[in-house]
Amino acid sequence: MTPTARRRVLISGASIAGPALAYWLHRSGWAVTVVEKAGALRAGGYPVDIRGTAIEVVRRMGILPHLRDAHIDSRRCTFLDADGGTVAALSPCAVVGSVEGQDLEVRRGDLAALLHALVRDDVELLFDDSIAALDQSGPGGGADVAFHSGRQRTFDLVVGADGMHSHTRESLFGPEEQFHRHLGYCFAIFTLPNTLGLSRELVLWNTPGRAAALYAVGDHDELHAFLNFHQPEPPSDALRNPEAQQDLVAAVFADAGWEVPRIVRAMREADDLFLDTAGQIRMPRWSSGRVALVGDAAYAPSFLTGQGSSLALAGAYMLANALATHRDHTAAFAAYESGVRPFVAMNQALVDNGSARLFPTTAADLERRNAMLRNLATLPSAPAQPAHSALTLPEFARLP
Ligand SMILES: Cc1cc2nc3c(=O)[nH]c(=O)nc-3n(C[C@H](O)[C@H](O)[C@H](O)COP(=O)(O)OP(=O)(O)OC[C@H]3O[C@@H](n4cnc5c(N)ncnc54)[C@H](O)[C@@H]3O)c2cc1C
Q1: Ligand 1 center–CA 296 separation, angstroms
Q2: Whose Cα sits closest to atom 21 in ligand 1?
Q3: How far is the CA of 15 from the centre of ligand 1 (A)?
Q4: H-run or E-run covering 54
Q5: Atom 38 (ligand 1): residue with closest C-alpha?
Q6: Which neighbouring-strand residues pair with 181?
Q7: Which PANTHER family does this UniProt record tie to the protein (predicted)?
Q8: Burial class (CB within 10 angstroms; exposed 0-12, middle 13-18, buried 19+) of 245
Q9: pTM of the model
Q10: Contact 123, 254 (CB under 8 A)
C-alpha cells in the first residue's frame, strides 16, 4: 500500500453503529465496505432513545432535524398496580431521565433508515452476506476476509458492529458467555392490535418481578407489547425452543390481572415475537490486531438502560476520530478505548442484576418505586441522568 492509497475498512453490521462508523470513516478518507447478513435494511422495531452525548453526534452528522421530525413525542407514561388501578401518570422524560425538548425517542427503523440514506452513495454496501473467515496472519499485513458468498477481499481494518450476539467478537475472542452479564430478567416483545385506543403513550403494569407494558407509538393501530420478568438465572433450555419460550412466559403471567391474559394470548399469535434475557456485554478489550468492535458487539448496556443506540452512535464517532488522529491502528484502538470506556462503564452501571428501577422484584422495592413515581409526578421537571452526557466529544480530527 502506498502512503497516499485510501485505507480500506470492512464493517460487519448495518444497523446503528455500523452506518454511523461508515459515515465518519468515509469523511476522513477511508474506502468503506459494510456487510450485513440481512437481505435488506432491517425496518421497524421498537422505539430507541438518543440522548445526551449522542444528540451532539447526530447534530454533527446533519441528521438532527430529521430525527426531531421522527421523534415519537409520547404524551404520558401511566403506571398500574396489580388490578389495573393507576399508581402515577408522568411525562416519559421524567421516568427515564431524558431532557424534555432535547433528547429524542424514535423508531429504531427510522434511525437505521436515516443513517443508511446518509452513507448509501458513498460506501459499498453488501447485503445478504457475512464474514465466513478472517485471517490476520497473511504476508500482506492486512486482514484477509472470506465471505459466505464466496467473495475474497483484503482490508486494512475490520470492525464488528454486528450487535449483542456478535459473530466477529466470537471469532476473535471466543464464546459470548465469557462477556455476557445476565441482569436477572427475561423479556418478550411483539406487536398486537391497538384495540384499547391508546395513543402516543406507554402503560406499564407491575407486580413484584413482573411487568407488562403496552406502548402506542403515535396513533397507529398497532401496539408494542413488552413482557418482562425476573429470572435470576438465564432459562437456557427455554431460550432454544420457541414453544418453550411461550410456555415460560404464559406460566410466569398465569394469574396476572388487568389486560395481561389478553396480552399473553396475543403473544401466542404474534408473528414477530422476540424473547431474550436482559444482559450486557462487558469485555476487557475491544480490539485484537486489525479488528475492533463497536456498539452492542463491544459494550451492549441492555435495553434496561435505554442507552444502546446512544453508546453505539458515540462509540462510532470516537472510533472514527481515533483512526483519523492516529495513523497507527494500534494507537487508534487504544485511544478509542480509553476515550469511551469510562462513558460505557457509567451507563452500564445504571442497572445491575435484578435492580432495574422500573422493574422491582420484591413487594418492598415496588412500593418504594411507586412512592418515588408519585413524588416525581409532583415535580415540575425531573433531573437529567448525568451518565447520558458524561462524554464530551472532541472536534473531529483529520489526518495531516
Ligand atoms: C427490547 C429492546 C429494547 C430496546 N430499547 C432501547 C431503547 O429504548 N433505547 C436504546 O437506545 N436502545 C434500545 N435497545 C438497544 C438498541 O437497539 C441497540 O443497543 C442499538 O441498536 C445498538 O446498535 P448496534 O448497531 O450496535 O447493534 P444492532 O442494532 O444489534 O445491529 C447489529 C446488526 O448487525 C447485523 N448482523 C448480525 N450478525 C451479523 C453477521 N454475522 N454479519 C453481518 N451482519 C450481522 C444485524 O442484522 C444488525 O443489522 C433495545 C433493545 C431491545 C432488544
Answers
A1: 6
A2: 309
A3: 6
A4: helix 53-60
A5: 162
A6: 280
A7: MONOOXYGENASE (PTHR46865:SF2), OXIDOREDUCTASE-RELATED (PTHR46865)
A8: buried
A9: 0.93
A10: no
> Which atom of ligand 1 is nearest to 14's Cα?
49
> In this model, does residue 281 exceed pLDDT 50?
yes
User: Which residue's alpha carbon is at the smallest distance from atom 5 of ligand 1?
Assistant: 303
Which of 318, 382, 305 is closest to 159 using CA atoms? 318
- AA identity, residue 157: L
Taking Cα atoms as reference points, which of 73, 121, 84, 57 lies closest to residue 217?
73
Residue 298 · residue 285 · CB < 8 Å? no
* Cβ–Cβ under 8 Å, residues 393 and 322: no
**CATH number 3.50.50.60 is the correct assignment for the domain at 8-71+107-179+280-352:** yes
How many CB atoms are closer than 10 A to CB 155?
A: 22
The x, y and z cell numbers of residue 70, run together, are 421522527
The yes-or-no verdict on residue 1 having pLDDT over 60 is: no
For residue 302, list its beta bridge partners.
none
Q: Give nearest CA residue, ligand 1 atom 4.
A: 303
User: At 77, is the secondary structure helix, strand, or coil?
Assistant: strand
- CB 47, CB 111: distance < 8 Å: no
Quote the DSSP letter at residue 272: S
**How far is Cα 264 from Cα 302, in angstroms, rounded to an integer?**
23
Query: pLDDT, tens digit, for every residue of 224-245?
Result: 999 999 999 988 888 888 889 9
pLDDT tens for 251-275 read: 999 999 999 999 999 999 999 898 9
Query: Which is it for the CA torsion 296, 298, 299, 304, positive or negative?
Result: positive
Question: Please, what sign has the CA dihedral across residues 300, 305, 308, 312?
Answer: negative
Say how many Å lie between the CA of residue 368 and the centre of ligand 1: 32
pLDDT at 210: 97
